[in-house]
Amino acid sequence: MRRLLVLGATGSIGNTCLRAYSEGLINDTVISGVVAGSSRRIDELGKQFSSPVLLASGKSREEIMSFISCLSPDIALNGVSGIAGLMYTDILIDLGIDIALANKESIVLGGEYILEKAMRKGVRIIPVDSEHSAIHNLLKGHKAERLIITASGGPFVDRKDMTGITAEEALNHPVWKMGPKITVDSATLANKALEVIEASYLFSFPPERIQVTVHRQSVIHSMIESPDGAVYALMSNPDMTLPIVSAINGGDVPPRLVSPLDLSSLTLTFEDWDRERFPMLSLGFEALRKGGFYPAAFASADEVAVNAFLSGEIGFTDIPRVTERTMEEDWSLRATSVDEIMERADRAAAIAEEICRNI
Ligand SMILES: NC(=O)c1ccc[n+]([C@@H]2O[C@H](COP(=O)([O-])OP(=O)(O)OC[C@H]3O[C@@H](n4cnc5c(N)ncnc54)[C@H](OP(=O)(O)O)[C@@H]3O)[C@@H](O)[C@H]2O)c1
């Protein structure tokens, strides 16, 4: 029996994983522990899965590491939201535990440092984000010249005037039901920017070989273009159960895990994205091109700005303003440890907070 640790167990990804486990979709596995930030619902989950729980909020790295180490998991799902997820990825690598990784910020901030460290320690990082899971699977069979990442376009894909958008509107995603941070990021296309950065590091593709296309149906999770020009796509009904179970089971997925596609009722569309209305995606590409700590500064500023938007301090169109102004600082130096990464991420967050206060 493998031992599976679920980080971010009370969230959208954690819930989907635990539901899949309860339905017998995850092979020969026991839940070795469940971790959340501050939600007491974790106690119920601990009882339900007869496993130890950790409420991590206010705990030190050493306390968290010692809890995880005692559980001796073989694999962990990292479904923690935001930059906080990086510390967990780093701990799991230190402990030699394979990672089914939903937390994209781990790669956006940790970049080559985290990937090299994982390789050195023999830790496998299997992507859970549906786009990266699709690319990961497509690259098993084909060489790729270009990655084509699909975006649903979010709730404002057709909205002409981006002023006056409320948190309630931004939290109403047309396709996916997810946590608040990623849902707002999907509305600004910052989520796509984070995914482009994550894909660039995970699959070693420079930004000019990554394209984003708006594909409203979210049936194609991503595509790769092979050197001969053929394009391969991974398609399924949108359901995070598939990439989560596939990552944890090592690609071994039970039959009919997601409902089959009804091709007779499908129309698939592709559109370019609007640079003016969605500046966050351009900023993400710029951060990736500049390299160094720019992608992390982008992610840090975005996290601060999204929280400020959700608490009513700034408007929706201020999110790119805060991010762009934070990125005006010099972030060219590459960080060489997780402490250094977190220190600089805190500095970017402090700058973004100051900008929010004066906007
Ligand atoms: N949702 C999706 O469909 C989806 C798809 C692709 C990728 N992702 C990525 O997966 C990650 C999680 O997304 P989500 O939508 O599941 O978020 P979510 O619903 O907001 O859940 C976040 C989870 O993280 C926990 N958490 C927050 N801070 C923590 C900390 N410091 N220590 C331990 N746990 C902490 C939360 O615990 P509390 O409940 O106690 O706050 C909660 O369990 C994000 O990086 C997101 O980009 C999500």
CATH class of the largest domain: Alpha Beta
pLDDT under 50 segments (min length 5)? none
Number of strands: 10
- Provide the helix percentage: 40-55%
The CATH H-level superfamily of the largest domain is: NAD(P)-binding Rossmann-like Domain
Bound molecules: NADP nicotinamide-adenine-dinucleotide phosphate
CATH architecture of the largest domain: 3-Layer(aba) Sandwich
How many distinct folded domains?
A: 3
Helix run count? 14
Q: How far do the termini sit from each other?
A: 54 Å
CATH topology of the largest domain: Rossmann fold
Structural class: alpha/beta
Overall average residue pLDDT:
96
Name the descriptors.
binds NADP nicotinamide-adenine-dinucleotide phosphate; Rna Polymerase Sigma Factor, Chain: A; 359 residues; 10 strands; 3 domains; 4-stranded mixed β-sheet
Q: How would you portray this structure in words?
A:
The chain is α/β, with parallel strands linked by helices and 359 residues long. The protein folds into 3 domains: 2-127, Rossmann fold; 130-153 and 191-273, no CATH class; 160-188 and 277-359, Orthogonal Bundle (Rna Polymerase Sigma Factor, Chain: A), CATH 1.10.1740. It is 45% helix and 14% strand. β2 (29-36), α2 and β3 (53-55) form a beta-alpha-beta unit. α11 runs antiparallel to α12. The longest helix has 20 residues, at 338-357. The chain is globular. The structure holds NADP nicotinamide-adenine-dinucleotide phosphate.
